[in-house]
Amino acid sequence: MAVAKAPRASRSDPEARRDQMIDVAMAAFADRGYPAVELKEIASEVGVTPNLIHHYFPGGKSELHLEAVKRSCAQLEEMFEASPDIPIENKMPANVARYVDEALVPTDRWKLYTRSLRSADDDLRACAVATRLAVMEGVTANHLGTTSPSPEVRAALFGVYGFLEDASDEWRIQAIGDRAKLENVIMSVLIAALATASSG
């Protein structure tokens, strides 16, 4: 699949050009995977030379890939609501719906995030793990009133999120049409894990 054409940045706006490189890279790496992407393709989509990509990203393809993963993870973190001013009965369904939106498409950022969790590259995996932990902190802030849960709760949620991410991907792969059931499964598993791990 061809990478969608990105609007070309003005020569006078290097930050916008850098942002476009990362945006195009997100789509390319998500669509074709790291080995199949060449910098010259990304350069062509942005309207620059490969040398200019090396100017912005001296580490070349691997550095650009890491920046694409970082942006993907940051965007996922920003989606989740942990404001104490919003009732939990409103926050949880909304947060789960956003999560399911990402998994069932799946979006470019979801692909990069979930692949990075399984990556042998320490930097990529660390970025994805940090995102999972940030989302977990939002869950414990919403349900337990703390972003520093006990080790038992932290360990349980970390494992539960792995299960929920895999379950959501499998839901999509198996073309199970009942989205509401998936959302209910996610909420039920999270609530049960929180209750069990924090009891006693």
Automatic annotation (TrEMBL):
InterPro entries: Homeodomain-like_sf (IPR009057), HTH-type_TetR-like_transc_reg (IPR050109), HTH_TetR (IPR001647)
Protein's UniProt keywords contain Transmembrane helix: no
Keyword flag DNA damage: no
Keywords for the protein's UniProt record, in alphabetical order: DNA-binding, Transcription, Transcription regulation
Entry-linked PROSITE patterns: HTH_TETR_2
SUPFAM superfamilies named in the record: Homeodomain-like (SSF46689)
Molecular function as annotated in GO: DNA-binding transcription factor activity; transcription cis-regulatory region binding
Every HTH tetR-type domain range: 15-75
UniProt protein name: Unannotated protein
Lineage: unclassified sequences, metagenomes, ecological metagenomes
Annotated Pfam families: TetR_N
